[in-house]
Request: fold
Amino acid sequence: MTAVIHIEGLRKTFRTMRGGARVALNGFDMTVEAGQIHGFLGPNGSGKTTTLRTLLGLVRADDGRMSILGHPAPDALPAVAPRLGAIVESPQFFGNFTGRRTLRLLARAGGVPAERVEAVLTQVGLRDRGNERVKAYSLGMKQRLAVASALLKQPELLILDEPANGLDPAGIREMRDLMRELSTAGITVLVSSHILAEIELICDHVTIISRGQRVATGPVAAVLSGFDKGEYRVRVADLDRAAGVLTTAGLPVTRKEDHLVVADVGDAAWIAEQLGQRGMWVSELTPLTPDLESVFLQLTNSAPEPVPTRQVDEAIQPGTIDLGVQP
Ligand SMILES: Nc1ncnc2c1ncn2[C@@H]1O[C@H](COP(=O)(O)OP(=O)(O)OP(=O)(O)O)[C@@H](O)[C@H]1O
Ligand SMILES: [Mg+2]
Reply:
């Protein structure tokens, strides 16, 4: 496997206006291999944008090593830039120009053949709206234009910071389809997002960041299985009696309003058998597999709290949870 992006021990502390220091990255590591759609997850303020800006030479790191497409970053960025497309800060386009004209100008400036303009307009679904002024575009259309501009050079690697921001569900879905198509075409995609269901649907690998440090990484399924407690939802008519039987058998049982949650279940059929033998017929036996959202909330300790409101920096201190998932 070739690492398309490799980051090791990245550190960045910002000086604040009042002369204080804000640690944005605290020894962050990340590896993205060729061909991945790699999701980059973390709560607000955890350091995602800072990581991407540092990687792209927009912010200077205090310490750490980075490489991009096999070359040291940021020093070799000018050499690799033609192979790289990135949207990190929302690009500002000139509102009076049409989308098509904007892309033509960008293509000319970047030495890209003019035919690419039509190709990327079609690719992002703007072909029929390309002659309208950018100021008349919706947020989603501006996002598409930004992606189109990043695709002009036919990059091998595409870096997108929160591409689904501000998109409606249909727009999010189209962005997802677009990323899949790009991936099928052989482009490696690194995409940051808060929309966990999105990441789970589209990404094959994830890196989760909390307070400037990596707290989990790996194939999505492996990260999730690290949190799989073998739990099942069990529904029977007599919950108390069933709970008694299963507890006696040594299984951890939690009694819920209208069902039981049973952990450490090796063989679900065994539960059905134990209860059935005692005349209790199971009406539901469902494995409770963790989803990315519950894993993310556990890892970053950012589960919603009613009162007081969680502050953006109150994510969990990394290193306090044993992940069971090796980077
Ligand atoms: N230029 C800056 N000056 C001072 N502090 C900064 C600067 N840029 C980022 N920070 C701080 O660094 C931390 C990480 O910010 P960053 O933008 O990387 O987070 P993020 O993970 O992208 O968050 P979000 O999900 O909200 O986009 C935050 O506490 C932020 O306030
Ligand atoms: Mg950000």
